[in-house]
Design a protein that fits this description.
Radius of gyration: 23 Å
Number of helices: 8
Largest sheet: 7 strands, mixed
Structural class: alpha+beta
Distance between the termini: 59 Å
CATH superfamily of the largest domain: Formyl transferase, N-terminal domain
Order of helices and strands: EHEEEHEHEHEHEEHHEEEEEEHE
CATH topology of the largest domain: Rossmann fold
CATH architecture of the largest domain: 3-Layer(aba) Sandwich
Shape: elongated
């Protein structure tokens, strides 16, 4: 197999297995990631997961502030790559994605055109899908709309949350990327245009905002249970715990549910270790929670530290 010369663009942990695998089979000439940022209470400079892995693999790294910077564009042109590979990165301007001889390939964690957008894993869980997958496409001017190269499905299990599904998809996606690159080199892949598929699969996956992370107790317990799973471990779903007219944010990180008669917002003490949150058609039974500004704790630990009143409820 002919080795391709590649510029790899990515930032988060999701992209790390792809970089690792491609580096063992092809030539990574440059790794492009976001600039270092201060993080944590001490505002210590923190590298992106991709920069950390690139340095470990002794690969050159570039961290442009602006992708349209002429110096950066000339840097890519001078490298003259066969491919640019994009995994969980910024929008790539056409001045860059048109440079490679064999094209710019993007890995997306959904079965495109379903769940175009920045949060496909979360929305697949929230919407109760029983499967999702990974897709490789040639990049074009429209976000997540380029010709499909390869796809592979992945089941979504009832015990899946964002983290477990994310971790399986990043491995499956890395393997699909390698297969895609090799297929493009060998000319064994026929790109499939998405336009013909959009009408029957017109679901979008918008960015998760803080407003979206609040549970809606007027909806079903199953729906709220899916939201909790989709937002684990970050940013985490939350509700307001109301007692004595004081509201506290309570994050719900893990929960079960039960279909039984309850009123939305009801607080029910099930036993000394467990409590329930009323929804429209049943209850949520939290397993791990966190009060605003506090560490994550089990429901049992939470109950031991609480003083209850008859008017306590959730909103």
């Amino acid at each position: 197999m002919q080795k391709a010369n590649i510029v790899f663009m990515g930032t988060p942990d999701f992209a790390v297995p792809s970089l690792e695998l491609l580096a063992t089979h092809h030539n990574i000439l440059l790794v492009v990631t976001t600039p270092d940022k201060p993080a944590g209470r001490g505002l210590k400079i923190q590298y992106s997961p991709i920069k950390t892995k690139a340095l470990e693999l002794q690969l050159p790294v570039s961290q442009p502030v602006l992708l349209k910077d002429p110096d950066f564009i000339n840097q890519i042109k001078n490298i003259n790559p066969d491919f640019i590979i994009v995994v969980a990165f910024r929008i790539i301007p056409d001045e860059i994605f048109k440079i490679p001889k064999l094209g710019t390939i993007n890995l997306h964690p959904s079965l495109l055109p379903k769940y175009r957008g920045p949060s496909p894993i979360q929305w697949a869980i929230i919407n109760g899908e029983n499967q999702t997958g990974v897709t490789t496409i040639f990049l074009n001017e429209k976000i997540d709309s380029g010709p499909i190269l390869l796809q592979e499905t992945e089941p979504i299990y009832d015990n899946d949350n964002f983290l477990t599904l994310h971790n399986r998809l990043k491995i499956k996606g890395a393997k699909l990327l390698l297969e895609t690159i090799n297929g493009v080199i060998d000319n064994t892949i026929t790109p499939k245009m998405q336009d013909n598929l959009v009408k029957q699969n017109n679901l979008y996956a918008p960015k998760i905002t803080k407003e979206m992370t609040k549970l809606d107790l007027s909806r079903s317990c199953v729906y709220n249970w899916r939201v909790i799973r989709a937002l684990y471990p970050k940013p985490a779903a939350y509700i307001y715990l109301v007692d004595d007219n004081k509201k506290k944010i309570l994050k719900i990180l893990e929960a079960d549910y039960d279909l039984r008669i309850s009123n939305p917002g009801d607080f029910t003490l099930l036993d000394k270790h467990n409590f329930a949150i009323g929804c429209s058609d049943g209850i949520l039974i939290p397993k791990t929670v966190a009060l605003e500004g506090r560490k994550v704790m089990t429901s049992s630990e939470f109950l031991r530290g609480m003083h209850f009143s008859k008017i306590m409820h959730f909103e």
